[in-house]
Diphosphomevalonate decarboxylase
Amino acid sequence: ISDIITVIAPVNIAVIKYWGKRDEDLILPLNDSVSATLDTNVMCAKTSVCARQDLIEDEIWLNKEKVPFSNRLQNCLKEIKARAASENSVDPIFLHLKIRACSENNFPTAAGLASSAAGYACFVFALAKLYKVKSDISSIARLGSGSACRSVYGGFVRWHAGSKPDGSDSVATQIADASHWPEMRALILVVGDKKKETSSTGGMAVSVKTSELMRHRVEYCVPQRTELIVDAIKNKDFPKFAEITMKDSNQFHAICLDSYPPFVYMNDISHSIVGLIHKYNEISGKVKVAYTFDAGSNACLYLLEEDVSEVISLIKHVYPPSNSKGFVTGLSYVEDVNSKILKMFQPKDKDLIKYVIYTKVGDGPSEVTDG
Ligand code: DP6
């Protein structure tokens, strides 16, 4: 009856973190957040959807396994159908059919690699295509996972917390598209791909209830930082962008420790990466690299293209891989070892960093035709 729609959607990594909800059902955040959307050529979620007369219930398959069609998925589907009905975009009969969705990621799930953001953005974008919804879908992606609303757009994106109880003003908007700052790069240092212990949803609920530092961040720090980082992005001011990014990541992880009972996402290797980046920036005489950590131990480094080869050399020197071939996936790069700098850093044990993903800022979701 219907055609199959296949779309891909990007991962996004926040530089001003979303942490804490004012409404857990509608997934409304306490604070604005800002992120960069990463290139779908390197990391993406891919989802196919169709509506079928012969289906007795809505189905979702994740990495080739049938999984329960959760409340969050139901909420997204319900909202897309309501939007399609109000836009009169498809024959009402079509809205009564059950759907099948098949989704996969080309990167590890639940390792703090923002897989849920790409996954829900992909699911909702695919449904919007299926039901021919034309209006902004970021508030629908938000119902799947808060951070997913930012993966609906490419480039640099701001999720406005909004203030309305129904969440209608809690939407993502683009600050600048992917071509605005073409030199911006990201290196994801995969420290471990074990499933994380405290989910973001669970962790932020504990923080909202117990952390005083969180209140200070939401009321005082985030509003200032958000304005400053939006300006830094618009003016392509890397040192300012980097400083705010690092401070906000550190404060988010401080909130995790300030929560009661406390929980941690960063491990010893994560902390050693923080130390390394500060030392490197210091001896470089300028801030060349920013780190940020989500709800996991992996580091995401933001840096400019001109510094990539030096930083990759540094990482390989300090965290030597036993298999150097294949250590860095993503786009190609030239290695340029600055031996004076390398001499200042002591190598650590082998394989503390499992692999590195090299990527850049990219576009939002798109339909693919190859299925
Ligand atoms: C640390 O979007 O995964 O990555 O809305 O409960 O699904 P839910 O949480 P989720 O939280 C992401 C938290 C973060 C910071 C961020 O991406 O802004």
